[in-house]
Amino acid sequence: MTLYIIGLGLNDEKDITLKGLATIKKCRKVYLENYTSKLNCSVKKLEALYKKKIILADRDLVESQAEKTILKEAKKNDVAFLVVGDPFGATTHIDLVLRAKETKIKIKIIHNASILTAIGIIGLELYKYGKVTSIPFHNENVKTPVKVLKNNLANGLHTLFLLDLDPKQKKFLSINEAIEYLLKNNVHEDIVAIGCAKLGSDNPTIKIGRLKELKNLKFDKFPQCLIIPAKLHFMEEEALSLYKK
Fold first, then answer.
1. Where do the structural domains in the chain lie, given as residue ranges?
2. Confidence band, pLDDT 50/70/90 cuts, at residue 244
3. CATH number of 2-113
4. What is the structure's pLDDT at 245?
5. Tens digits of per-residue pLDDT, 93-102?
6. What is the model's pTM?
7. Angle at 228 between CA 226 and CA 234, to 5 degrees
């Protein structure tokens, strides 16, 4: 029997790959991880397409209870574990793979689009991104994101900030809050940034401006991320001009 870890892509139920859909249909149980990203459609729409009942898997179930649920069932039947985006866009799922292999459960991965590839729409060269960092909800004493930014800029590399979220509680750190955090930690207000919301959807929001300008703009779609570019190639400058207001 096999545990299939399947990426759903970034938008709605139609972003599933043909291979992913065929695999889900043959699985005995289907789990949906619902704590590392936001699903941009209802679970009912997934169930209607898959013709399967979906079990929501929160952090506790995956990280503490998997041996009693997901892994136990995968020893006897084919089980699907669905992840918004790509299966390994969140490194927490490597842990599930390692635990499955320890108990001799067969693993198969079906990839899909993730935020790490969807940011290509902005026009910045993907191989010029440095270390990716996250800004958490409780960030009063958190300094790592600023350190990452400074190191990336010193090396001529762009910085992608992933913003904290808790889909279960419907809480999402906004671009505006992320900018406030950066300004409080002495990132200059005139530095240019790109605010992105709902990348991978049919109508993403992409706005470019100085931090002091972006902090006053409205971003009402989620999930969101923030990018601060390093020195730009002329082609990157031309691409970014599409999003300047």
1. 2-113, 116-243
2. confident
3. 3.40.1010.10
4. 61
5. 899 999 999 9
6. 0.93
7. 125
